[in-house]
Amino acid sequence: MQTNRRRFLAGVSAIAPFSYLASRGTNAAEIIPASPDYFSDLGVKPFINAIGPYSSLGGNEMWPEVIEAMDYAIRNKARMTDLHDAVGRRIAALTGAPAAMVSSGATGAIILATAACMTMGDQEKMERIPDTSGMPNEVIILKTQRYMYDRSIRAPGAVLVEVESEADIRAAVSEKTAMMFYLLNRPENLGIEVENYISLAREFEVPILCDAATTVPPVSNIAATIAAGFDLVCFSGGKGLRGPYSAGLLLGREDLVRFARMNGSPNHRAYGRSMKVAPEEYLGMMVAIETSLAFDEDAEYERQLSIVNSMGRNLGLLPGITIETAVPVGEAREPYIEIRWDTRIYDITVADMKQALRDGDPSIEVRALFLSNNQLHLTAVALKKGEAEIVTRRIAEILQSHGTGMDA
Ligand SMILES: *Cc1c(COP(=O)(O)O)cnc(C)c1O
Questions:
Q1: Any ligand 1 atom below 6 A from CB of 152
Q2: Is 243 in the pocket of ligand 1 (CB under 6 A)?
Q3: Given CA atoms 312, 318, 321, 322 in this order, what sign does their dihedral have?
Q4: 202 and 345 share a domain?
Q5: What separation in Å is there between the alpha carbon of 64 and the centre of ligand 1?
Q6: Of 198, 247, 276, 324, whose CB count within 10 A is highest?
């Protein structure tokens, strides 16, 4: 392990932008100039991330342990079936799931899980999807839980059946029903309690899949969601788990995970052959879970909280600004501040502020509009040392340049 680690570090030190080495464990690495600086050479603009590990922004920074494990798997080949078996068993043991597999993101897990529930290991059916004629192909989904990723359920040929109540579910279930779907932690106006939803799936013996993609940290949410009684649960690998960007997890019932694997790579004729997961992603995902389980999440939470609060104090010095500290409900436990300003004093909208920060130098990404109720949010999860001050200074500058001259 030690030898391996040294070799890895020696191997990358000359080429990689290895800012993660500066501060093992947290994201708060120093910014170290890289040589060669690929992005700068390409004219790809760097940015300060005050929003969090979004897919469109490259996801989260991987744990150093994950990078080392990936480096190992790049240099040492194994048969993919052996690797899938062994890593699956290990992840299952770590999480308390009956079985586990690494997928191409949470969305890849949803596709393979749906394919599994429609085909149940039947070779002829697996060959035929997304043509799902003559097989159970209906997936029950709560109307209030329709969301941007439910395309992944439909991708392998499933048809969504929207329900709003227990009575709807009882009327909807038939021999055409392949699966029930649940989006974790979106409890608004569901029309049915989650426990009741799960027990209906039990009663009708319909497999139930839960999308829990962004509910880590805390990593204990993995075991808790499995224990809640879902047959299958999926997570993103490259968000709060800090694993490989394009990896994800599918956990749950042994037969269903086996069927999901049959629909995926490396099986040549599988529907999910294009959702290939690299051996280094397989191993990296396992190590991401191990590392997350050993990490002091409370200390990290306090670290982030202290940074967002200090940003709030800085901005609160301006007249006409109100700051509120909050933690998302049911999402990854990443504290943030919400910033509001009196538009009689500063004549700028939230949308224009977001754009001005993006267009500025340095470019800054903040949460606004999408997932923030049209408010401006700052998080510290992906900020590097010294960046919090830059973010608050830029926001103050932009506000002041839109000052109307009116007093608070
Ligand atoms: C991010 C997200 C996904 C997509 O996850 P990937 O790992 O990028 O495929 C799916 N569902 C929810 C709720 C998410 O937040």
A1: no
A2: no
A3: positive
A4: no
A5: 23
A6: 247
Task: Return the SS3 of 233.
Answer: strand
Distance 38 CA to ligand 1 centre (A): 28
C-beta of 105 in contact with ligand 1 (< 6 A):
yes
Centroid of ligand 1 to alpha carbon of 46 (angstroms): 24
Return the residue whose CA atom lies nearest to atom 5 of ligand 1: 106
Q: Give CA–CA dist 72/225, Å, rounded.
A: 31
Q: 264 with 167, same domain?
A: yes
Q: pLDDT (tens digit, 9 = 90+) per residue, 329-346?
A: 778 999 999 999 999 999
Indicate whether this model's pTM tops 0.85: yes
286 plus 318 within the same structural domain: no
Is the shortest distance between the CB of 136 and ligand 1 below 6 Å?
no
Mean pLDDT by 10 residues, the chain (408 residues): 31 34 55 82 95 92 98 97 98 98 98 98 98 98 95 98 97 98 84 94 98 95 96 97 98 98 97 98 98 97 98 96 91 94 96 97 92 90 97 98 88
Tell me, yes or no, whether 219 and 308 share the same domain: no
pLDDT tens figures, 211-259: 999 999 999 999 999 999 999 999 999 999 999 999 999 999 999 999 9
Same domain for 382 and 287, yes or no, is no
Nearest CA to ligand 1 atom 11: 213
Residue 157: name the closest of 138, 183, 176, 180 by CA: 138
How many Å lie between the centroid of ligand 1 and the Cα of residue 136?
25
The SS3 assignment for 252 reads: strand
Residues 272 and 303 in one domain: no
**Residue where a domain stops, chosen among 294, 325, 357:** 294
E strand map for 198-282: 208-211, 232-236, 248-252
Q: Which residue's CA lies nearest to atom 8 of ligand 1?
A: 105
DSSP-derived 3-state class of residue 211: strand
